[in-house]
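Thioredoxin reductase, Candidatus Faecalibacterium faecigallinarum. Tokens?
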Amino acid sequence: MSKVYDVIILGAGPGGLAAGLYAGRSRLSTLVIEKGQDGGQIAITDDIENYPGQMVEGESGPSLIARMTQQVEKFGAERVADTINAVDFSGEIKILKSAKNEYQAKNVIIATGAYARPIGCKGEAEFRGKGVSYCATCDANFFEDLEVFVVGGGDSAVEEAMYLTKFARKVTIIHRRDELRAAKSIQEKAFANPKIEFFWDSVVEELGGDDILQWMKVKNVKTGEVRTVEADEEDGMFGVFGFIGTVPNSKLFEGILDMDERGYIRTDEDMHTNIPNVYAVGDVRIKSLRQVVTAAADGAIAAVQVERSLSDYF
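Tokens:
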């Protein structure tokens, strides 16, 4: 491709789509590249309750993303389905390459997102969104007065377990070791919480049920004993939350952009990376809260920064 865009947005999750909306509305020549379906992680979320302005009577990830996509199209952003496997950010014109095409732009907004590190047990994929979750802030309300299990033992796992106690009847932390890895101050709060119990030296081996999560098998790694946990008959189901880390989709930019030890891209508050005219938004960057609303805000900020970089008045 010989066309040089004002901005190329890599990824069509909430951050990328918000950037596309703002860039298109500012009359910038905009290209959004997405290798899969729009929406990223939110596209497989059945119920959303905490996005401002959503349909109060009920909103799913796909329905919210569909409207975002329509807005982007309304303001003229071009779309391409492609997988980028190499980038060159060394010159004023940034180059993104796929197996068959080359794309050029004055600015690039990286919105490639992140994914939850899977628990790694049988049945996990089948029950994602049907009892299995990776975000307490997103899904805790759906488990009001039910029993839930949290897999993990680090800071985020224990903090999310405590958050879940505001909604769930009981929270059990499943950890493969005999002590938590979380900071001592966080551990003390968890041990003092009467709603929290523990399965030590344990891993989840299998999840099952009839369309919704109703049972699981938990193995003690020291004794080899396998116990089957079943949902309370009146509840009909329980929840399993995996908090063993997230993985940013940033491998493409290793050695090019500044990242932390986990691979999250460093930006300033205006989404600038260490390379001029290259921005990162949403879950792929270092941030304290990974939600649809914060990803959309990031995208808007980055697009406005692009517009100002191309204007005479900033």
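The first strand starts at residue 4 and ends at 10.
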